Amino acid sequence: MVMGRALYRCRGRGFTVLELLGVLAVIAVLVALLLPAVQQAREQARKLQCQNNLRQLGIGLGHYQFLHKTLPPGAVAVTVPVNVERAPEGIGWIGQILPQMGEQAIYLQVNSEEPLRSFPSDTALTNEMTRAIDDKDSLSAGSGESDAGKFSVPGHPMMSFLQCPSSAGLLGKGFSSYAGCHSSGEKSINADADGLLYVNSSESLEAIPDGSSNTLLLGEGSERLPGQGWLFGDRGTLRNGLPLDLEQKANGLKQQTVALASAVTDAERPAVRMREGLKVGGFASRHSYQVNFLVADGSVRGLSRQIDAAILRQLISRSDGGGVVEF
Description:
Blueprint: H1 2-12, H2 17-68, H3 93-96, H4 104-107, E1 129-131, E2 151-153, E3 178-183, E4 216-220, E5 238-240, H5 244-252, H6 269-276, E6 290-295, E7 300-304, H7 309-316
Parallel strand pairs: 3-5
Antiparallel strand pairs: 1-2, 3-4, 4-6, 6-7
């Protein structure tokens, strides 16, 4: 009888179903309150890493400027405007600053005269990207001339300072999350843009008409309309000053490089591809509220997506003549 009473007392000390449900409810509320804070902290860390990547690229460009007394050309090309449907003729600004970024080994694999022959090692070719063009039907935009034909783009070695943590893997290892400021408005990549990086450019950080603290140099490139890889000077590494809010919406829709209507015939398709290949696009980000930019003076700023489009154009143009812009 005594043992039975002791056992009864032990059983009576347990939790009831209502008490367990109450504890679970409290835990659920605490998790719901803490989860946004944890996610916000993680995003803040990713944003800081993204800004650090831009800062590193700024240091590399600064070292290049010190050695050559000029910034690297945004793109090296003879045939303009640059079209992603043509075989690239030269390398872009990222490929030229590899030694300044501590990537001498990768730089030695770059073939500046024949860039498609770069990265010949087996490991670099594991992520091969192929872009084929029909010799007979493809036409240069507006010229009526036949394009160079089929070509293959080799896989690029991955470099962490080119990958924004918030968008890493969305484009692929061979692409850059960051692009140079090419033109203040939508314009095909050419030699007459008003940004700091364009075809065969030779701008200097010390001679920017609007001043280095008032001109943007790099920014987070939109994921739509991808280029051929970080080595080349095309829309993958150069972007234009489109309104950030509109570009962000288009970026979120994940528009494809070529959106061909069903009404386009097979004969018309190559010409449409060439025309679409001239589009460049703007800047966008996976971060909340802001898009990170590198200013020509080396500082990094997060610009609101709601920034006035006219102010953004002024900041990207190296010589708009509008004076100091508050941003």
